[in-house]
Specification:
By secondary structure, this protein is an alpha/beta fold. Helix content is 28%, strand content 29%. It has a nine-stranded mixed beta sheet with strand order 11-10-9-12-8-1-6-7-13, sandwiched between helices. The protein has a two-stranded antiparallel sheet with strand order 2-5. The chain has a two-stranded antiparallel ribbon with strand order 3-4.
Amino acid sequence: MKLLVCVSKAPDTTSRISFTDEGRSFDESGVQFIINPYDEWYALVRAIELVEANGGSVTTITVGDASCDPIIRKALAIGATDAVRVDTTPKDSTQVARLIADYSKNEGFDIILCGKETIDHNSSAVPAMIAECLDLPYVALATSLEVSGSESTIVTEVSGGTNNVTVSGAFVLSAAKGMSEQRIPNMRGIMSARTKPLKVVEATDVTQTTEVTEFKLPPAKGDCVLVDADNAEELVRLLREEAKII
């Protein structure tokens, strides 16, 4: 079994967010970066579990510059076999998906796993685009993945419930909560990560299709208004006139 896991760099959830270049660029100064949690906790860990049970290898792939190397090394410490970094700055979802597809199209991966989205952009676009570029089946929002031979059984989230899917052959999957549990790298994993292969490849010629015109922070939260429990009329007025939900 040969698995590929897409791993991206994301700001730590406690980071203070700001923008530069008149709102067109994210200010990375002083920001702590982590592996995107959906990539790490669900896609990567489940891939490692499958290889531990069935044999094979887990390769991670990241589109980014050398600043991504620490998070890639963490993925190796968690249990990935080796890693690939496409040496370029990620610009948009289409560019990232095409670069990953260009690398993987001749590598013979059985399953390509991604987190369902990144916590910074939340677009959920890259996995489906990879599948389209490679002309492979795509299964979104998977919460369970079991593999038997060349057949995979997947449970996915759908509106109001779940859906059971069976796929034969290679496919692309986006992993959601429930797929697996977070793993903490142990000392042996951390030490072995230093010597595991991290292959840096040149980016293919992929055209950027979108351009950021401006980032905006959400409006500041308003003050909390307390209403006496006996003053129902005032509560209704506030909900109707200020909250505008009645």
